Amino acid sequence: MVVVIANDLPPAVRGRMKLWFVEARANVFVSGIKDAVADRVITYLFQSCRNNSGLLVFQKISTPPYYKIWGMGDTKHKISIIDGLQLVFEKLEKDNNH
User: Fold this and answer.
1) What domains are defined for the chain?
2) CA distance linking residue 8 with residue 36, whole number of Å
């Protein structure tokens, strides 16, 4: 399974994604594609998208912890590794009042 969340995808990439994925919401794609196809799709995304696309990709893998997280560009989330485990944190916005 692969889940792709993007800030903005180029129209050609977004159209191609609809071949393999269901677009649950605007720029949120979900698919149950096999591992080999998933690797090719993720490679395609990272080669075809600009840095401002803000990609966040979750891929199911067969070894613990059974998922891999990929990120590219400025997203609203930060990928961190703690004790070998990838975690996603929301970036805190600065409060102008304090």
Assistant:
1) 2-90 (3.30.70.240)
2) 25
Could you identify the residue written with the tokens 């609809």?
18
pTM (predicted TM-score): 0.81
Helix (H) or strand (E) holding 22: strand 22-25
The 3-state DSSP class for residue 16 equals helix
Question: Radius of gyration of the chain from Cα atoms?
Answer: 14
28-31 and 77-82 beta bridge pairing: unpaired
**Among the listed residues 75, 47, 42, the one whose alpha carbon sits nearest the alpha carbon of residue 31:** 42
Query: What digits encode the pLDDT tens for the residues 7-44?
Result: 989 999 999 999 989 999 999 999 999 988 999 999 99
